[in-house]
Amino acid sequence: MRTPIAILAAAASLALGAVATPALADTLEEIASHGMVVTIADMDIDVAFTPDGKFTALGGAISGTYKIDGLKLCTTTAEQGENCTTYPTGKKSGDTFEVTSEQGSAKVHIK
């Protein structure tokens, strides 16, 4: 069973990485610009991104760096290292959808 810290770290890794953004990364551009709310096990986790490639989640309790690699959002935290998650294309601010990674699945809502 995952501990709350492990769940939060996994959530951050699902949410989180933007340096160069290819044309197909439109969803990730929206996420980096607007932020997102990741829902895991009925817990909403607000994630904010900055243009300099950093992110924060849970009011700053989780922080790290992010980058966009094609259709993947890659996040790096001290606790979890780097984690990359593939996102669907064509999503815009206000959309909600599911993503799946090695840590499991989560609902993502683009602010």
Overall 3D shape: globular
Report the sheet with the most strands, covering strand number, pairing sense and barrel closure. Answer: 8 strands, antiparallel
Poorly predicted segments = 1-8, 14-23
Number of DSSP E strands: 8
The fraction of residues assigned to DSSP E strands is over 45%
Strands of the largest sheet, in order across it? 6-5-4-3-2-1-8-7
| Count of the domains | 1
> What's the number of helices?
2
The succession of helices and strands, N to C, reads HHEEEEEEEE
Structural class: alpha+beta
How far apart are the termini? 30 Å
Q: At the fourth CATH level, what is the homologous superfamily? A: Uncharacterised protein family Atu4866
**Approximate helicity band:** 10-25%
pLDDT averaged over residues: 84
Architecture in CATH? Answer: Beta Barrel
Give the CATH level 1 class: Mainly Beta
CATH topology: Lipocalin
Radius of gyration: 12 Å
Q: Multimeric state of these chains?
A: single chain
Structure, explained:
By secondary structure, the chain is an alpha+beta fold. The protein has one domain (4-110): Uncharacterised protein family Atu4866 (Lipocalin), CATH 2.40.128.290. Helix content is 19%, strand content 45%. The protein is built from 2 helices and 8 strands. It has helices spanning 4-15, 26-34; strands at 36-40, 43-50, 54-57, 62-69, 72-77, 81-86, 96-101, 104-110. The longest helix is centred in the N-terminal third of the chain and has 12 residues, at 4-15. It starts with a helix and ends with a strand.
